[in-house]
Design a protein that fits this description.
This protein is of the alpha+beta class and 531 residues long. Helices cover 18% and strands 34% of the residues. The longest helix is centred in the last third of the chain and has 50 residues.
Length: 531
C-alpha cells in the first residue's frame, strides 16, 4: 500500500506531517456500504448498507462483529450517540431504529416520516436526534425518552442530509432542491439559506467544529465552505470528478474530508485553501466518511461492500513546531533574505502557499504499479486483489477558488510532499481477523524514503549554511539547528531499522532454503532406490 510524504522548501521540512495509512478493511456487508460512524470511545465502528443491515465492528481482533437485521429495506444512514450506548439508523422502509450495540441487537422503532429516511445525526450532548427524509422534512427527537419533538419544514424536495450544530441550537439540512438551509431550533425557522442553482442535488452538509462555518458538497463535484456570520462563500473547491457523497471536518477544524462517486477520498487543507491529499482505496464509489472523535482515525464506506479505517497522521507536528513558527524564526534571523537583497529591482513571482508540488526532481512521486505519474489518477487494483489504497499528495495545480480568507479557519500553513512507504491492513468477514503486512514493499519503500529524506536533509542543511554564510553562524536559529540534529538522529534510527529488516530478510531466505532442501530430500527418499 503506497503511502506518501515529501518536502516543501527549506524549513518547511521541519514540520513535515506523516501521510494517512490504511489500517483496516472490514468486510461483511452483502451490498454497497452507505454510511459509517465511530463511537465516542473508539472501541467500535458502525456501518449501514443497501443490504438492509447495520454492522457493528469491534476493533479488538478477538471480538466478533454484530450484524443487526431489523430494517426491511436499504439502510442509508447510521449514527452513534456520543453519550449513550445507542445507535441510530435510517432506512428506505421510512423508519428510524435505535439499537443497543450488544450481541442481542435490541431495537426500538421511531416512525414519523412518510418517505425514505436519508440521514440520522445526534447532537453533541446526545440529547437530540435529527432525521432527514424524502418527505421534505427534518424531524427532531428527544433522547433518551425517544419522544418526537418537532418538524422542521422548508425544503421543496427530498432532504438528503441534516446535522445539528456543535452547540445544539441549529440544524443544517440540504437536498434535491439545491438549497442549504440552517434552522434555528428554538424558533423552528430558517435563518440562513444558501442556494446553488447550478450545483445540482446537495448530498453532504456539515458544521465546522467551532460552529461558525459549514461545508456543502454537490452533485456537480464542487465543495463550498460558507461563513455563517457574514453569509460569505469562503472557499470553493473543484477537484472531484463525480458527485460529492459525504463530507466531514477534522475535529481541529483545519481539514475537510470528502467522498465522491469518482471512487476517491480527498483531504482539503482549509488553512491554505487547497487540496492536500487524494486517496484511492475503494473499488467503486465512496459513499460516506467520518472522523473518530479525537481525529486520529477516519473511516470510509464504499460501493465495494467494504469499510476502510485509516490512520490520519497528517495533522501531526514535529516536536510541537508548526511550519509558520519555523519560518518566522528563520525570517527573524534573516535566512532567505539574501536573494531579495542581491536583486532588489527584480520582481519575484507570486508564491503559491506551501506548495505541495515539487522541491526538485529527486523528490517527485515515482510511477509504481499502483500509481502513475504525479497528478494522474492511480490505476485500479486488479480483479480479486486487495485495493491498493494508493495515496497522492496534491498541490495548487488542482483547480480551486478561494474567494475570501476564513479567519476562523486560517490557523497557519500546512505541509505536503511525495514520499511513499508501506502500511498494513486487516480484513474481517464477521469478525476482525487476518492481519497482514507488506514486507518487501516496506523494505523498498523504507530504503527509498530514507534516501529521499537524506537528500532533503542535505539540501536543507546546504540552504541553511548558504544563508548563514553572509550572516554569521550565530544567525541560524538554535531551534532550527536543534531540529536538524533531531532529523539526523531519526535518519540514524531509520538506517538501524533497515539493517534489522535486511537481517530478517536474509534469515527468512535461509529458512526457505533449508525448507526447500528438506522438501527435496524427502521427495528423493520417497522415490526409493533406483533399480
Amino acid at each position: 500500500m503506497p503511502q506518501g510524504q515529501a518536502p516543501v522548501p527549506s524549513a518547511a521540512l521541519l514540520s513535515q506531517p506523516d501521510d494517512p495509512t490504511l489500517e483496516r478493511s472490514f468486510r461483511g456487508h452483502k451490498d454497497a456500504v452507505t454510511s459509517v460512524a465511530f463511537n465516542s470511545n473508539l472501541k467500535q465502528l458502525i456501518s449501514g448498507s443497501l443490504d438492509g443491515t447495520v454492522m457493528v465492528w469491534n476493533f479488538k481482533p478477538q471480538l466478533r462483529a454484530f450484524r443487526f437485521a431489523g430494517h426491511t429495506a436499504a439502510v442509508y444512514s447510521v449514527a452513534f450517540s456520543p453519550t449513550h450506548s445507542l445507535i441510530a439508523s435510517g432506512s428506505k422502509d421510512r423508519s428510524v431504529r435505535l439499537w443497543q450495540p450488544t450481541v442481542e441487537g435490541r431495537s426500538t422503532v421511531l416512525k414519523a416520516h412518510t418517505g425514505t429516511v436519508r440521514c440520522v445525526h445526534f447532537s453533541a450532548d446526545g440529547r437530540t436526534l435529527a432525521t432527514a427524509s424524502d418527505d421534505k422534512t427534518v424531524k427532531l427527537w428527544s433522547l433518551p425518552a425517544q419522544r418526537f419533538v418537532c418538524t422542521l419544514a422548508g425544503h421543496s424536495n427530498w432532504v438528503r442530509t441534516a446535522q445539528l450544530s456543535p452547540d445544539g441550537r441549529l440544524v443544517v439540512s440540504a437536498g434535491d432542491d439545491r438549497c442549504v438551509k440552517v434552522f434555528d431550533i428554538a424558533s423552528r425557522k430558517v435563518i440562513r439559506c444558501y442556494e446553488d442553482p447550478t450545483g445540482g442535488s446537495i448530498s453532504a452538509a456539515a458544521f465546522h467544529p467551532d460552529g461558525t462555518a459549514l461545508a456543502s458538497g454537490c452533485a456537480d463535484a464542487s465543495i463550498k465552505v460558507w461563513d455563517l456570520r457574514s453569509d460569505a462563500l469562503l472557499q470553493h473547491y473543484r477537484a472531484h470528478t463525480g458527485a460529492i457523497t459525504g463530507a466531514a471536518f477534522h475535529p481541529s477544524g483545519s481539514f475537510l474530508l470528502t467522498s465522491s462517486l469518482d471512487t476517491t477520498l480527498k483531504v482539503w487543507d482549509l488553512r491554505e485553501g487547497q487540496l492536500f491529499y487524494t486517496l484511492h482505496g475503494h473499488e467503486g464509489a465512496t459513499n460516506s466518511v467520518a472522523f473518530s472523535p479525537g481525529g486520529d482515525y477516519f473511516a470510509s464506506a464504499g460501493a465495494d461492500e467494504q469499510v476502510m479505517v485509516w490512520r490520519t497522521n497528517f495533522d501531526r507536528q514535529l516536536d510541537g513546531y508548526t511550519l509558520g513558527a519555523v519560518v518566522r524564526e528563520a525570517g527573524d534571523a534573516g535566512i532567505g533574505a539574501t536573494q531579495s537583497q542581491a536583486a532588489p529591482q527584480q520582481q519575484q513571482p507570486p508564491q503559491q502557499p506551501a506548495s505541495r508540488a515539487v522541491d526538485g526532481p529527486a523528490l517527485q512521486p515515482r510511477p509504481t504499479s499502483a500509481a502513475g505519474a504525479a497528478g494522474r489518477p492511480r490505476s485500479s487494483s486488479p480483479a480479486g486483489a486487495l485495493p491498493s489504497a494508493a495515496l497522492r499528495r496534491d498541490g495548487p495545480q488542482q483547480q480551486k477558488q478561494q474567494l475570501a480568507p476564513a479567519a476562523a479557519l486560517a490557523q497557519g500553513p500546512g505541509v505536503a510532499g511525495n514520499l511513499y512507504a508501506a502500511g498494513r491492513y486487516t480484513e474481517a468477514e464477521s469478525n476482525v481477523s487476518d492481519t497482514g503486512e507488506s514486507g518487501d514493499v516496506g523494505d523498498r519503500a523504507a530504503a527509498d524514503g530514507a534516501a529521499a529524506a537524506a537528500a532533503a536533509c542535505e539540501r536543507l542543511a546546504a540552504g541553511g549554511a548558504a544563508a548563514a554564510g553572509g550572516l554569521g553562524q550565530a544567525a541560524l536559529p538554535e531551534a532550527l539547528a536543534a531540529t536538524l540534529r533531531d532529523i539526523v538522529s531519526k535518519l540514524d534510527h531509520i538506517a538501524g531499522a533497515m539493517d534489522g529488516l535486511n537481517r530478517r530478510v536474509m534469515a527468512t531466505e535461509e529458512r526457505l532454503s533449508r525448507l526447500e532442501a528438506a522438501r527435496t530430500g524427502n521427495a528423493h527418499a520417497a522415490e526409493g532406490p533406483l533399480t
